[in-house]
From TrEMBL:
Name of this chain's protein: Vat family streptogramin A O-acetyltransferase
Domain of life: Bacteria
Membership in a protein family: Belongs to the transferase hexapeptide repeat family.
Signal peptide, first to last residue: none
A molecular-function term among this protein's GO annotations: acyltransferase activity
Keywords: Acyltransferase, Antibiotic resistance, Repeat, Transferase
Record keyword Acetylation present: no
Length: 218
């Protein structure tokens, strides 16, 4: 076998603070790509689902995370169930309490709904990041530690802060366009193994572009 076993919970049996979260028991409306890991040195990484908040199956919103993402401890995905009705005088959720207040329970279509939360492939999320409902994070993006993400993040960019703001592009537009076509995360394990040096070296991208006919159409 080449590389770690993508079907094991722990990609390194000597490092039980890191797990492949796609191998946790499945949860409704959550989709996790292969090789994506969650790292947590304070709590068990198997408790990843505890970091998905206000995620109610009847609302139908999904959390979708791509392949080869690196997610650090303290992540918080706030889903659409956290939203309050905002077109009245007050946003207070009377209906969730007893004593007759249930009479003004809003229908689902009366609640703010931001849609699915989607994290692309090869995304690095730093410690203690909060991602708000409906956010889309592009492939290859980096989110700095302690950030709160309230709007979409473009592929291969770096964002940080509260609220998270654009810091810089990782590569120029030409290189980003090439990487989005390359989609190395969809290669099989052997092909990834054979190209590890280029995937991780400073000059690797230029080598891929120089010989792109060997990679975009094979």
């Amino acid at each position: 076998m080449i590389g770690p076993d993508k079907n094991k919970l722990y990609p390194n049996e000597n490092l039980k603070t890191v797990c492949y979260i796609s191998n946790l028991p499945k949860q409704p409306n959550v989709e996790i790509g292969e090789y994506t890991y969650y790292s947590d040195t304070k709590k068990s990484p198997e408790k990843f689902y505890d970091h998905i908040e206000y995620h109610y199956e009847f609302l139908g919103d999904r959390l979708i995370i791509g392949k080869f993402c690196a997610i650090a401890e303290g992540i918080k995905f706030v889903m659409n169930g956290a939203n309050h009705k905002m077109d009245g005088i007050t946003t207070y959720p009377f209906n969730i309490f007893e004593g007759g207040w249930e009479k003004i329970t809003p229908s689902i279509d009366q609640l703010p709904f931001k849609g699915d939360t989607v994290i692309g492939n090869d995304v690095w999320i730093g410690q203690n990041v909060t991602i708000m409902p409906g956010v889309k994070v592009g492939d290859g993006a980096i989110i700095a530690a302690n950030s709160t993400v309230v709007k979409n993040i473009e592929p291969y960019t770096i964002y940080g802060g509260n609220p998270a703001k654009f810091i810089k592009k990782r590569f120029n537009d030409e290189k980003v366009e090439f990487l989005l076509k390359l989609q190395w995360w969809n290669w099989d394990a052997e092909k990834i193994f054979n190209h590890l040096e280029k995937l991780t070296s400073e000059t690797g991208l230029d080598q891929f572009i120089k010989n792109q006919k060997d990679y975009l159409w094979d």
